[in-house]
Amino acid sequence: MLLGRGGVAFPAGKKMDAVADDAPFLRFIVCNADEMDPGTFKDRVLIHADPHMLIEWMIITGYGILIDFFARESCGWCTPCREGTEAMVEILSRLSKVEEKPVLIEDIYLHPILFAGIDRFDMTDQSLSKVVDENYYMRPSGGKQNFRIGFLIGERALNLQVSEETPILTVKRFLHFTQAKNAIYSELYCRTDQFVFSQTIGGIAYE
Hints:
alpha+beta; Rossmann fold
């Protein structure tokens, strides 16, 4: 059974059936991306991590509720996160260099309750895992990450000193803790034109 991501986990199929079985009328689909649940930022993480997944499920749901995709009036909306949502998550960003050359940019989104006040720590040459372990007494219980090759534009390209045609290794990483799943989400943008990246799998060393 496919359940909703909200607090009541309402069955998605029942919700679609309630619309599909109704009398014929013009149908629309609205994705509520507002962050209304207290102490969470799952919507922001989902939108940042995989926006195409959001669009795909809007399309699938559209078929489920019998939207006429060929009708000019048919359309879907995604309501944005309300003003001030950025205050609901701790956000860190750092630029790593090797011999004064920029190597990678890391944007980190942290659970606002579990990691409250993390901005007071000096993260220079520090592993985030080590800072969390030593100051919050927590270690990841699991996680996942995916990789792809992409390109940068604007400020990120300037900070990494690359052109818009330079291939960049993009890593999206989710870390789970006993207290909360996806408590840390990070996006890494790594130069591949001059540097080779490696990762140790397993063990307890900080990378």
